[in-house]
Specification:
Layout: H1 2-7, H2 12-24, E1 32-38, E2 45-47, H3 56-62, E3 69-74, E4 77-78, E5 84-85, E6 88-93, H4 100-117, E7 121-125, H5 134-138
Parallel strand pairs: 6-7
Antiparallel strand pairs: 1-2, 1-3, 3-6, 4-5
Length: 142
């Protein structure tokens, strides 16, 4: 991770937002998601917009068709045992139509983003529509 941490940067403000989101969503009753992107010129990883999405369909509609994104998701669900769980995961949105430069840019930052955001699991998706089956991927009951 040493080389990634020198190449990609997080502003102190972004690091604080990551921490607050992680701590603030652990008891959420609704899904909560924020989208992060990499600035191609400064290589800074930052929140794409100030939106916190609570509707998975709205989130899917906002994802670009030809550009990767990191999505931090806190998703309350009921496990098959009946117990409530709120997994905190990173969704790595990597459309098949994105160019090789962006593909490499995001691939190089994936582990750094995972570690900085302190997520438990990374789920890779190729299309925004894949978000519709996120509950299955997290292990909840549909």
């Amino acid at each position: 991770m040493a080389s990634e941490s020198r190449l990609y940067t997080f502003s102190p403000e972004t690091q604080e937002k990551l921490r607050k989101f992680r701590l603030g969503t652990s008891r959420a009753k609704d899904p909560q998601a924020v989208v992060y992107q990499i600035d191609k010129h400064s290589l800074e990883i930052a929140q794409a917009d100030d939106e916190t999405y609570t509707n998975i369909q709205e989130l899917a509609d906002e994802l670009p068709d030809h550009s990767p994104r990191f999505i931090l998701l806190s998703y309350p669900l009921t496990l098959p045992s009946g117990r409530l769980s709120v997994p905190y995961v990173m969704i790595y949105h990597l459309p098949v139509t994105c160019n090789a430069e962006l593909r490499m840019l995001y691939a190089g930052a994936k582990e750094l983003m995972r570690n900085t955001a302190e997520v438990g699991k990374v789920i890779e998706i190729a299309e925004a529509e894949d978000l519709e089956t996120i509950e299955e991927k997290l292990g909840g009951t549909a």
